[in-house]
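We modelled the chain as a single entity of 301 amino acids. Its sequence is:
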Amino acid sequence: MLHNIHFEYPYLFLLLVLLLICLKFCKQKNERFIFPNFALFKQVGKKRFSMQTLLKVSAFILLTIAIASPYSQDDVVVEKNKGYEISLILDASGSMEKMNKFDIVKNIVSDFVKERKHDKLGLTIFADFAYVAVPLTYDKESINRLLSKIDVGVAGTQRTALYEALFMSSKLFAHSNAKEKVAILLTDGVDNTNSIPMDVAIKTAKKYGIKVYTIGVGGRGDYNPAVLKRIAQDTGGEFFQADSVEKLKKVYEVINHLEKSEIKADKYVKKSHYFQYPLGLALLLMLAYLFYRRSRFIKDN
């Protein structure tokens, strides 16, 4: 810590020069008496003077250090984002088990989550029904930890509640003050639960100002591109088709680039002052000096 110590008033150390001058030339004048064994008394007086001088000089040096105001300084950088909040909506229906699609999607999404270091993310899973697995959070580790444990079948395997998932995911933003709200909806099927009408799901997303990016996974016959395109267009997002792992990776890279957070860093200087420590020691030495003089006076008289 000592290498990081600075002084607010370093010029006050010139007082130590005055101290050296005073010790050299400011001699105390006393009356002189000649008596036997003068050399012995002179030696005793010299020892007493040395102790008193040491206490005074040490106290003066510590007082000088205190008034020079020692401190340490740390630069604190606070990062502020522009308020990006992103909801990840993943299809976990039975069809996602074919060709290991769900595991591939999880790995790609996990990498995407790691890239969004300064954003708030949420996770919604859907199949026979939809549920919010992770509300909007800055805790990326919890999302990736849950992603690694989720598998096809956690929400059933027979149906695809696509519109319900979009509706529930949109509700996550009900009390959000974020400037940018994004949802990324990935599916390889069509809605067949009729739990929430498509128009209601789109209207809810638009109500909260959510831009929805839709991704169709697999062949064209697996999902309805017209539906996914409409959801994206009506909310100001974009529709992507991904029929290979490479294309799917590219889709998330494109979205990551399109919705990149703008980070503003504010720098603050944190100061910690330490004048109280030398000041406290100086006061203790001054008390010791006064006590020493008093004890010597009582002993001599």
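As a brief sanity check on the tokenised model: Residues 2-24+44-74+272-300 form one domain. The two ends are 49 Å apart (CA to CA).
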